[in-house]
Amino acid sequence: MTNETTNGRTTGSVVAEISTSLDGFVAGPNDGPENALGDGGERLHEWVYELSSWRAQHGLEGGTTNETDERLAESVENTGAVVMGRRMFSNEDGPWGDEPFEGHWGDEPPFGVPVFVLTHHPREPLELGGTTFTFVTEGVDDALERAREAAGEKDISIAGGASTIRQCLRTGLLDELRIHLVPVLLGDGIRLFDRSGDRIELERTRVSESDGVTHLEFRPA
Amino acid sequence: MTNETTNGRTTGSVVAEISTSLDGFVAGPNDGPENALGDGGERLHEWVYELSSWRAQHGLEGGTTNETDERLAESVENTGAVVMGRRMFSNEDGPWGDEPFEGHWGDEPPFGVPVFVLTHHPREPLELGGTTFTFVTEGVDDALERAREAAGEKDISIAGGASTIRQCLRTGLLDELRIHLVPVLLGDGIRLFDRSGDRIELERTRVSESDGVTHLEFRPA
Q1: What is the pTM of this model?
Q2: DSSP H helical segments within A30-117, as ranges?
Q3: Domains observed in chain A
């Protein structure tokens, strides 16, 4: 699906990007409707809140401009569609009622591109402030196919959670894995990687550092 | 215990250094007497076998000379004593018999400095080709105290395994944690970090890359 451009960048990639603690957690323990990131999980995202491009994406002004910020801006710019697991959208589980929860993302979700939500329960598409959430019940392959149509030559971003990323990695659907490694041990929570029993070789393609976080990029070998 | 030298290096540190997979394993599954690194665990150490300083330490000639190699040579040079868990020494468990196993390390162990082995069972010191293994039954604090006496102003290396490193980290005894991150998912095995429930903040002090491995250094904050 990917194409090499003249400057060597690969377009049309399926990219997963996630912040983890040094002990491998992407959320703290006791996550739930009122505690989406789990206890202490907010710590994993502190580095991003001050970046100018993150702030712009969330309707805020100001912020830091540095290499990480440029990289994030580039990543947002290159994204043509998003795929996410049901829990990334909502803690409410289906079957969806008559007035289902409109998700974690508020009235103005920060995506601005079509979002495909994996769920076992059919639901009509939901439009919120310029973002359309489409609910896909036929599995991750189907979601990626629909995201590819929506994204054209742009990248598809796998927004998480951990199990959706693992599934894409295991089935060979992922082109790039970007881990933002935060120097904290959370001690408990939701792990990015479980004991799948599958050995997967990767190639490290890029390492960079910014204040309080190390950015590691990999490509399945 | 540490002292700042004129060039800014801290001497007399307690340093743990370990190779892990991207999914956080330091050994593969099914480890045992004939399979010390577990299934596939050898993969985590491939990067080091070609380094000139590792080869010299193990009585071999040749090898690659690069920044990682220099760093390893420096680390060996700065080490005045080693502390290791019992399983790093031997898969045999005590009480030690009349002719106990002489450990994983062969007739010429690569240490050349006093090694303190944590065990629950007393045993006379064992000298093998210039390395003396002393068996410590009073716990990790006592082992570190004895290692400090032996090391003088040099560093103490915590050679592992994972549980010994975790114990030093949790009790605040560790000054530096160096992780050699290998871009593979092992899928199962022995994890460096468990669900301790303890949140520990670290500071990332250094990142460097070499062929097939990323070196990440941290200091407990």
Answers
A1: 0.92
A2: 46-49, 52-57, 67-78, 86-89
A3: 10-214 (3.40.430.10)
